[in-house]
Amino acid sequence: MASFSTIGAAWLAHNAIIEYLDRADAAFVRLNLLLLLIVSFLPFPTRLVAEYIHQDKAERVAVTFFGIILLLSSTMLLVLWKYAVRARLVRPDLADEEVELLTQRLTPGLSAYVVLIVSGLFLPVIAVIGFLGIALYYIIPFRRLSAGILPGRRRRRRAGPRGEG
Fold first, then answer.
1. First and final C-alpha spacing in the chain
2. What is the domain partition of the chain in residue ranges?
3. CB of 128 closer than 8 Å to CB of 4
4. With contact defined as beta carbons under 8 Å apart, do 101 and 31 qualify?
């Protein structure tokens, strides 16, 4: 369940990133492919966790490996988004608050994954439950959060490619 939820959360986050794009360049497409590679690899550590659950040392290694792959996928999503912002691939009409909100939504999982990976060395089942919790956090709709934060506020437009806006 943690693996499926994580794949779903990655898909939703990826969809939010793509929704905010004005265009894509070759580097963005290649970063996107790297994200796809990492996400497509998730079934392997998931199988290891299922196979070695309740086998003490093997379980710890499997959960740690699973956590590292989840951390890599989460990191890759953040890298993809930050690249899009830095390369000015995002829509120029996008409010700064929306860019900041998506950045904030993609960031906290990284430190949580690190904490859970370390805790998985001692309490693997708790780590897997934590991995599921992170995925559920990401599954909460981005737009609804944005609407709740920004109602009634005037949106600041982002600077266009030539500093317009």
1. 44
2. 2-146
3. no
4. no
| Average pLDDT of the residues in 91-95 | 91
What CA–CA distance (Å, rounded) separates 70 from 49? Answer: 13
Say which residue, 157 or 138, is predicted with more confidence.
138
**Whole-prediction pTM value?**
0.80
Q: How far apart are CA 132 and CA 128, in angstroms?
A: 6
Tokens coding 27: 């580097």
- Which neighbouring-strand residues pair with 157? 95
Q: Is the pLDDT of residue 5 over 90?
A: no
**Do the beta carbons of residue 9 and residue 141 sit within 8 Å?**
no
Q: Any alpha helices (H) in the chain, and if so which ranges?
A: 2-19, 26-41, 43-52, 56-86, 96-106, 108-120, 124-139, 142-149
